[in-house]
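> example.struct
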């Protein structure tokens, strides 16, 4: 008869076989998932595109998040390698890997939050819109899976161009009859993270003490930092306003150029994505006053989607805040932002409806 110790070891060996990272009944991982379900309360999170530049760091940071009990890592390449690596971290979340389209549905069933950094990044000389051709189809396929397998999950969409991929996701969900605008959030947190950093530099403050609302969208002039609403209250010269607005709008391009063909922001993006995902999870848990900026379905302007500060709650973006008082420079920026944004939104929506 097999001893208890040998039995336990044989289960661990089974778990080390990559093909068992998505597995059948009685697996060690499934038992661990059950423990996670019945033990420490936590949420189930899937990352789609988990083996990429953003995905890997994001997966590591999510594995460190005490609110996460189950972490599903899906990609079309190397999902099991990343899963094996991250699963050795001695934190609470149980990690499972899913490779390729046939395993997409298993990756999604039962998820509370789905974070999507799947898709190609920019190279120098490209705009985010140049990524539309490839990433639109990727986002459509992934969102079809979400509509089928976890229609109530909160979706954090990172894949560019965000100004178009969020409308694409909305149309996919509408077609499937599962659309809940509160649960679909385009991630613009990196613009806020950059704005806090650059503004703190100018003011000589600790960036953790600074909060800058960034509204509009996530590309060039559609990124509109509201410097007149910075906390703590402060004032800037017009040169400072010009410098800061431009630097925040061009932050992504600054990284693309510095990486010189090796991709775009990954580390700061993973940091921003986890900051945002953590806010969504605290909202889901029922914490009060969780407010962050995100690109969401909105009636704040005449456009169907717009990034503003939103209050995150048990059902997603439960309250969408108005833009607040803006100065003349910001009002002019808003006009420019809306012109570009409406075209990107229509391009995304018509990709599905045509
Ligand atoms: N919202 C934002 O603020 C930001 C968005 N991004 C965007 O995030 C996306 C990912 O960037 P990186 O991680 O640097 O790219 P990457 O190329 O390093 O990783 C992308 C990953 O997506 C995977 N992938 C491709 N097709 C897939 C599919 N059909 N299903 C699942 N996974 C798939 C790839 O295998 C790869 O592992 C890009 O579109 C980029 O522009 C990047 C930075 C900031
Ligand atoms: O610039 C890019 O292509 C990636 C991105 O969205 C950002 O870093 O803000």
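> example.seq
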């Amino acid at each position: 008869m097999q001893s208890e110790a040998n039995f336990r070891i044989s289960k661990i060996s089974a778990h080390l076989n990559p093909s068992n990272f998505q597995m059948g009944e009685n697996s060690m991982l499934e038992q661990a998932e059950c423990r996670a379900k019945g033990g420490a309360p936590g949420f189930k999170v899937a990352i789609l595109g988990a083996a990429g530049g953003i995905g890997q760091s994001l997966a590591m940071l999510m594995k460190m998040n005490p609110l996460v009990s189950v972490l599903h890592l899906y990609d079309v390449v190397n999902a099991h390698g990343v899963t094996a690596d991250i699963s050795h971290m001695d934190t609470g979340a149980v990690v499972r890997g899913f490779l390729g389209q046939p395993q997409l549905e298993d990756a999604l069933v039962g998820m509370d939050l789905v974070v999507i950094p799947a898709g190609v990044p920019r190279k120098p000389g490209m705009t985010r819109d140049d990524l539309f051709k490839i990433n639109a189809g990727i986002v459509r396929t992934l969102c079809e899976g979400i509509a089928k397998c976890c229609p109530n999950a909160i979706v954090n969409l990172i894949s560019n161009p965000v100004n178009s991929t969020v409308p694409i996701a909305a149309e996919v969900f509408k077609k499937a009859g599962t659309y809940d605008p509160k649960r679909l959030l385009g991630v613009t947190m990196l613009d806020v993270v950059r704005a806090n950093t650059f503004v703190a530099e100018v003011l000589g403050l600790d960036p953790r003490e600074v909060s800058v609302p960034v509204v509009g969208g996530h590309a060039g002039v559609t990124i509109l930092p509201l410097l007149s609403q910075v906390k703590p209250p402060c004032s800037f010269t017009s040169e400072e306003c010009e410098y800061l607005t431009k630097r925040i709008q061009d932050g992504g391009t600054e990284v693309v150029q510095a990486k010189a063909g090796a991709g775009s922001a990954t580390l700061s993006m993973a940091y921003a994505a986890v900051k945002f995902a953590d806010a969504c999870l605290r909202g889901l848990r029922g914490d009060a006053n969780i407010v962050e900026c995100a690109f969401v379905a909105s009636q704040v302007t005449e456009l169907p989607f717009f990034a503003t500060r939103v209050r995150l709650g048990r059902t997603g973006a439960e309250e969408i805040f108005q833009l607040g008082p803006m100065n003349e420079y910001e009002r002019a920026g808003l006009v420019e932002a809306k012109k570009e944004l409406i075209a990107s939104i229509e391009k995304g929506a018509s990709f599905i409806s045509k």
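> remarks
Confidence is low (pLDDT under 50) at residues 19-28, 34-40.
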